[in-house]
Amino acid sequence: MKKLKSLMAISFVVLSLGGFAADKVYEATAEAKGYNEEGVPIVLTVKAIKKDGKVVVTDIVAKHQETDKVGGAAIEQLIEEVKTKQNYNKLDSVAGATSTSAGFRRAIRNAVKDIEKQN
């Protein structure tokens, strides 16, 4: 009887944990021209989950050759804004980094569109 109760308890725990499966993580990479003399694009690798039909960005990694003090700082600010506010469709430009901001917005939108299409 003791073994049966133990087996039932273990079965209950295993079955209960089944509802806590991790969300599927989607990933997309997109690029867009920012502002630098060489014309090297801003490349964003975006990771996200889908929750209630909406893309929720969990991580963004940016590769770029924008200036560290202006463009690089703007990219970091935009990454934080997307992750905290989840507002990737209506990002404002960062003062002094208009072209970098525009490139970031194009890249993030394209990455999110790609993730929306993924199954």
UniProtKB/TrEMBL annotation:
InterPro entries: FMN-bd
Keywords carried by this UniProt record: Signal
Gene3D superfamilies (alphabetical): 3.90.1010.20
Cellular component, GO annotation: membrane
Keyword Signal: yes
GO molecular function: FMN binding
Domain FMN-binding: 34-115
Signal peptide: 1-21
Pfam families recorded: FMN_bind (PF04205)
Listed transmembrane segments: none
Superkingdom of the organism of origin: Bacteria
Name assigned to this protein: FMN-binding domain-containing protein
Organism encoding this protein: Fusobacterium vincentii 4_1_13
